[in-house]
Amino acid sequence: MSRQQDEHGVVLTGYFSSSEARPAAGVSGGDDAECPVTSRKTCHYLQSRGKHVRGKSPCSHCGSQDSLDELPLDDYWKEVENIHESGAGDAEQQEEVQLKVTDEGEREEAWLAEVGLATLIDGSASDPEDSLALLSTLTRTQAAAVEKRVETLKQTLRKKNKQHQVPDVRDIFKPPAAQAPKLEVEVLPARRTENVQGEVGSGGPVGRICENGGGTPAAGMPDSEINVEISFSEQALLYKEGPKGTEARAQSDVDDKLPNFKVSRDRTGVTKVGDLAAQDMKKVHRLALIEMTALFDTAGIDLKPQKALKLKVKESGLFGVPLSTLLEQDQKRQPGTKVPLILQRLISHIESEGLGTEGLLRIPGVATRVKAVCLELEAKFYDGMFAWETLKQHDAASVLKLFIRELPYPLLTVEYLNAFTSVLKLPTKKQQLQTLNLLVLLLPTSSRSPLKALLEFFRRVMDHKQQNKMTLNNIAVVMAPNIFMFKGFRSKVSELQEFSMATGMAHIVRLLIRYQDLLWTIPKFIMNQVRKQNMENQKKMSKDRAMKKLLKKMAYDREKSDKQEKNAAEECAQGLIRIQAPQFSKISMAVQLTDELQVADIVARFVKQESALQEKKEDFCLYEVGGNINERCLDKEAYMKNVIELNPSAEWVIKSVPH
């Protein structure tokens, strides 16, 4: 690993291709038999640009055990050259983002604040009860991650002679019996648990996070399945501490194939990003950050989060505008927009012209035309005056790539870019995918939704590979420099670093495209932790004296709710469930429960009776509302009887799905 620091305190990291620094999971094999690193064309290209590896020419490096790269990188370096040429001669040079690695202590303090545990620093958090509820759900590896940050912060503050009252980690997780409120959070190993019945979790931090748990995380599970019922970091710990045979399994995982991984499903269905209410997504974000940190800790990987120094950015326009700003201006025109309108329009134009165009995304458009198109789009896009019929296919693809790399902050965010580039250090493909899953959950919506739109587009391009000659590898290699080499990166990174990081970037993009359906799933163990937090918070609220007046005012509503619950209990005893449908003419219906009744069957019964809604072709979903969740759009393949067992106090409401 190489690190350089400039006068601004900017630290840049490059990953070399030595055997000790090489990602254990390797990278995908390409078709190039001449040279594991590059073809001779790329070697010639690198030599022509003065690029060398460890003092040797790239060709002399071929065939060595140090090779980081098994992907053919000809197109990568051609794309880099195109980026160079497209930026040459720009009259308006935008200020480049400056990155800084946060100091120790500052890093831990920011981390604890982001996961909602700022109260552990100085007790000033606005909602300490929420922190206690979060702590009560943590697994042993998650608890260890919190302990490590608290202890590091404590030691740092001691060195700086600050008087922060940071508690001892032993007091956090094993408080004295006399301390109130009591928080029995014992750091215990994962164990077999029973099905969630209303109250999610009991006892230590592991709680009831594994409905079918027991033994090792992969017990009875095919190698191609991703276990989402047990904490990923717990699985990694058991894998690490397992018998010597696990080392052989890890080595067998280091190959050039991408297995058909899939998420393990149960009868309660899966939860996707976008299925949850904002309150619960906030909890998901906190838990995902703790879990990702615990996963890297278990693997012995030290993450160095970066932050961007203040940057003057454009506040309007299309290109070089922060995604959050762009979405704000688009939402004024089309409320609810999650993907920038210009990105949507470019994708739809490329698809309308035909995805079978040979070399799509790889062959660059004419540079002068691309610049002219960008200027014209800036002036005419929102007025609807741009002549899309004149935009050529390869020019449109070049504009799309330019839009991505001209973002003032990277699509994968400054905060998590190091984590994305560190994913390949994890020892198995499963752990790499689990970490990418957590990173997707951590991205802000302004980045996550455009990323999803791009990945879905790339997959559609790949579906036409027979015509356009763009395979998964081809797309990943071409798009990697556009996604990772944002403004400010290439001017600071050395050519040696750029060379050594090339394949890692391409492989990350490859994994994102290949496993996008898996990556946008919220793991079930996190969902169960969210449910337990909600239950703990409800208990605290019911005991809070300050809530008594409010509860009195709510007496009528409570009485009404009690009647509804009584009616629901009676219906349940008869094997019925009450479904609410306020948008339908029949606003409520009792449905007979059976073991094989799925959510899709219930929705279909209502829609079938509404001919007007069928004509509109609206998409409807059955929502789980209240109980131990705020609101969740149910998986249509879930079995209703099992979902009710998961949250018996919830209401069930059919609503249209927002787009």
Explain this structure to me?
Mean pLDDT is 76; it is low at 1-41, 44-48, 50-70, 175-219 and 245-255. It is built from 28 helices and 13 strands. The strands form five sheets. A five-stranded mixed sheet has the order 10-9-13-11-12. It is α+β, with helices and mostly antiparallel strands and 659 residues long. It is globular. Among the domains are: 2-80, no CATH class; 102-173, no CATH class; 575-659, Phosphatidylinositol 3-kinase Catalytic Subunit, Chain A, domain 1 (Ubiquitin-like (UB roll)).
Structural class: alpha+beta
Strand order of the largest sheet: 10-9-13-11-12
CATH class of the domain at 575-659: Alpha Beta
Strand content: 5-15%
Query: How much helical structure, as a percent, in the residues?
Result: 40-55%
As an assembly, this protein is: single chain
